[in-house]
Amino acid sequence: MTQAVRHDSMRARNLEVVLGEVSRGGPLTRAAVAERTGLTKSTVSKLVGDLVDAGILAESGLTRAGERGRPGVEVVLSGNRVASLGLEINVGYLAVCLLDLAGEVRLTLRLARDNRGSAPDEVLAELQVLAAEALDEADRLGFTLAGAGLAVSGPVGDGLLLSAPHLGWQDVRPGEMLDLPVPVELDNEANFAALGEVWFGAGELDFLYVSGEVGIGAGLVLDGALFRGAHGLAGELGHVVVSPDGPPCRCGGRGCLEAYAGQEALLAAAGGPATIADLVALVKGGDQRAELACAEAGRALGLALASAVNLLDLDRIVLGGIFAPLFGWLSGPAEQILRERLGRLRGSVPTVTSSRLGASAATLGAAGRVVHRVIAEPGPFLAAHREAREA
Q1: Residues 6+ positions from 236 with CB-CB distance below 8 Å
Q2: Could you tell me whether strands 105-112 and 93-100 are parallel, antiparallel, or unpaired per DSSP bridges?
Q3: CA distance 30 to 11
Q4: Within this chain, do residues 44 and 178 fall inside the same structural domain, yes or no?
Q5: 218 with 339, same domain?
Q6: What is the pTM of this model?
Q7: CA 230 to CA 233: how far, in whole Å?
Q8: CA 385: distance to chain centroid?
Q9: CA-CA distances (angstroms) from residue 240 to 26, 89, 211, 317?
């Protein structure tokens, strides 16, 4: 029994090593994998065969000269048989994406919907319809679903959405309310968006991702990994106080960042355009009230970010959500405040950039977490694949 446990553990570790080498440096022949990992060629051949059989790796069809001139067939991550779902419940929309193991988006769905005041089961029923459409597409393409991630607008702990004030929800388990063939991992929208930025955006490994929506959240990435805090609640940037005597906030305080730079606050200050796209059109057209609203929001954002930088010693900040399309009008005032507050102390200020992913960041991060977990630890997926085939 002890030997069996050791063998299974060693095999799982070797699978991780082989798959990690191909995902980082592929395409590679089996001989090249053996040389890079130090494993025997027969061991590599067996492990690669199992990974190909499960649809995680695929033979590229290309050959490369090998030992003694014998060609070896190269293997790569397969994008044709394994996929994951990324889902999002935001205040103003629902979204789903289907992502294959090679990181290609196969389907995106988005439904504009005002979810404020809607009962959880009502919203989840709408999301279920989108998910079912994505599952049908996965079946049509011949994919095995490896898992799903659900992004929500609020702090999360152990699958529980603790509070979503803008939705009016508290202590809800939305992942368990979906009827999907795989487990659903729940996390805060800003956390998933930050991971999406790591894997599909600029690829930076240390930064603060700031998500502007009706509320404002943040995801802190350190050395490529998400920092969650002691209770998984890190990143509530929207309730950093930027003016103690400022306007009231939904949280019960006054002068929070959200009261200046949240979506509703921005639209109201700009004179009431219906959408962020309308606000962008106004500032592009030189509307002074809209420009002033963006400048004020940018300055408030700069104050909150200066506090975060002083605390965390950050070198890079990425603005996402509604802040991405408004970046050209928000970033200047924000950076001016950062220079005033930090320049003398630090000698430099963080680089502030716009997210490359826009509104897709959270669903990409949610689906990407599943994909990266399969690549980092393929053993459980292979075991499930084997059980399904034998059933």
Answers
A1: 155, 217, 218
A2: antiparallel
A3: 17
A4: no
A5: yes
A6: 0.90
A7: 7
A8: 26
A9: 45, 24, 14, 16
Indicate if 177 and 266 belong to the same structural domain.
Answer: no
Residue 205 Cα distances to 220, 224, 316, 338, angstroms: 10, 4, 10, 22
Comparing CA positions, the residue from 300, 321, 305, 249 lying closest to residue 92 is: 321
Residue ranges of alpha helices (H) inside 313-349 are 327-346
CA–CA dist 288, 212 (Å, integer): 22
Number of domains in the chain: 3
List, for residues 131-146, the tens digit of each pLDDT value. 999 999 999 999 999 9
68 and 23 fall within a common domain = yes
Is it the case that residue 362 has pLDDT exceeding 80?
yes
Tokens of 224: 């490529």
pLDDT band at 302 (very low <50, low <70, confident <90, very high): very high
Sign of CA dihedral 55, 56, 62, 64: negative
Tokens of 165: 């004030």
Q: What does the longest C-alpha to C-alpha distance in the chain come to?
A: 78
Helix H or strand E encompassing 98: strand 93-100
Domain ranges, residue 173: 82-196+361-390
Same domain, 177 and 313: no
Query: Strands (DSSP E) along 113-197, which ranges?
Result: 144-152, 156-157, 160-164, 169-172, 184-188
How far, in Å, are 244, 257, 297, 378 from residue 254 at the CA level?
6, 9, 15, 48
Task: Look up residue 373 and give its amino acid.
Answer: R
Flag whether pLDDT at 163 surpasses 70. Answer: yes
Omega before 27 within 30 of 0, i.e. cis:
yes
Q: Please choose, from the candidates 221, 240, 217, 210, the residue with its C-alpha nearest in 3D space to the C-alpha of residue 326.
A: 210
Classify residue 68 by its DSSP letter.
Answer: G
How many other CB atoms are there within 10 angstroms of residue 237's CB atom? 26
